[in-house]
Design a protein that fits this description.
Blueprint lengths: L1 H20 L15 H11 L9 H15 L9 H14 L17 H4 L7 H28 L5 H10 L1 H16 L1 H6 L1 E4 L5 E5 H17 L1 H15 L3 H5 L4 H21 L5 E5 L5 H5 L5 E5 L3
Antiparallel strand pairs: 1-2, 3-4
Helix pairs in contact: 3-4, 6-8, 8-10, 8-11, 10-13, 11-13
Length: about 300
C-alpha cells in the first residue's frame, strides 16, 4: 500500500510539474511573449508546425469543444494549461478565424513549407506582383552573372563560388518589388491603427509605410538561409569521402539541406518584427494623434 501511495504521489507531482511548465492559458492570445525575438520565433514555430496537417477530424472537434468549455466556464476538472494551449494551436492552424471553416491544407501557414503555396490574393494584384518580381529577379541575376564572367581577376573556382550566391540578391530584390506592387494601395489609402484597448483610431499612411518597410525587410531575410546556407554547406559536404564515392547522393543530400534551411528561414524571418507593431502617435498624422489619448497605437504589419 505504501509503495502504491508513493507511486501515485510521484505521478501527481510529475503531472503538476509538466502542467506548470506551460504558462497560464489565455484564450485567443499567443502562448509566448511577443515582445522578444525568441518569443515570436517560438510562436511562429507553433504556427507553421506541419504536424497540424495530420490532425484528425475527431481531434479537431475535441480541441474546439475544449476551448468552448473554457470560454463558458464549464471546463472539466484536471485539464492542464498544456492541453488548452495545444487545443488552441490546433484550432488556429486549421480553422479560419472569421468563418470557423476548415482552411484548405495547402493554404494553411503549416502548409507553406511542404506545399510552397502562395497566400491567396486578387488575381490582378497577384499577376502584377509576379511579373514585377520576375522581371527584377531576372534582370539582377543576368546582370550579376555577366559582371562575374567579365571579372578577370577571379579564378575559375572563385567565380563558380560567387555565382552560387547570385540568386540571393536577385530573389531579395524580387521580394521587395513584389511587396511594393502587391500592397501599393496601402500607401495611398493607409492602414488601420488601434489604441491599447483595440479600438479603431483611424487610417494612417505613415503606419502603412512602416508596415511595408518591416515586411520588405522580412522578405529580404527570408531567402537568406535558403540561398546562402546550402551553397556553404554543400561546398563542404561535396569534399567528403562519402559524396565523392557516391555522387548519386548529391541531389538527395542537397534537397535535405535546402528543406532544413527553408524550415529555419520562415519562422526566423517572420519573427523579426511583432505581428502587431507599435508606433508613437506623435510620429503619425495630426488627425490620428488628436483622435486618441493613447501615447502609442498598434497596426498589423502583415506578412
Amino acid at each position: 500500500m505504501a509503495d502504491t501511495a508513493t507511486t501515485a504521489s510521484a505521478a501527481a507531482a510529475s503531472a503538476a510539474s509538466a502542467s506548470s511548465d506551460a504558462p497560464p492559458f489565455q484564450l485567443g492570445k499567443p502562448r509566448f511573449q511577443q515582445t522578444s525575438f525568441y518569443g515570436r520565433f517560438r510562436h511562429f514555430l507553433d504556427i507553421i508546425d506541419p504536424r497540424t496537417l495530420f490532425v484528425t477530424e475527431r481531434r479537431l472537434r475535441e480541441a474546439v469543444q475544449l476551448l468552448e468549455d473554457y470560454k463558458h466556464g464549464t471546463l472539466r476538472p484536471g485539464v492542464t494549461n498544456e492541453q488548452l494551449w495545444s487545443a488552441q494551436k490546433i484550432k488556429q492552424a486549421i480553422l479560419h478565424p472569421d468563418t470557423n471553416e476548415k482552411i484548405f491544407m495547402p493554404f494553411r501557414m503549416s502548409g507553406y513549407i511542404p506545399f510552397g503555396t502562395p497566400i491567396p490574393s486578387p488575381a490582378s494584384k497577384f499577376i502584377q506582383g509576379y511579373l514585377g518580381a520576375v522581371i527584377s529577379a531576372v534582370s539582377i541575376a543576368v546582370g550579376l552573372n555577366v559582371l562575374v564572367q567579365k571579372a578577370n581577376k577571379f579564378t575559375p573556382a572563385t567565380r563558380l563560388l560567387i555565382q552560387r550566391f547570385v540568386p540571393f540578391p536577385a530573389v531579395a530584390s524580387a521580394n521587395i518589388c513584389n511587396v511594393v506592387l502587391m500592397r501599393y494601395g496601402e500607401l495611398e489609402e493607409g492602414i488601420d491603427v488601434l489604441d491599447s484597448d483595440g479600438n479603431l483610431v483611424g487610417s494612417s499612411k505613415i503606419a502603412a509605410r512602416h508596415a511595408l518597410l518591416e515586411t520588405a525587410l522580412t522578405r529580404v531575410v527570408l531567402p537568406m538561409p535558403i540561398l546562402v546556407l546550402p551553397p556553404i554547406v554543400m561546398s563542404m559536404l561535396e569534399k567528403t569521402a562519402l559524396l565523392q564515392a557516391r555522387p548519386r547522393l548529391l541531389l538527395p543530400v542537397q534537397s535535405l539541406v535546402c528543406l532544413a534551411a527553408f524550415g529555419l528561414a520562415l519562422p526566423l524571418a517572420i519573427s523579426l518584427f511583432p505581428q502587431m507593431s507599435e508606433i508613437e502617435t506623435s510620429q503619425l498624422e495630426p488627425e490620428i494623434a488628436q483622435a486618441t489619448s493613447s501615447r502609442t497605437v498598434v497596426y498589423n504589419k502583415g506578412l
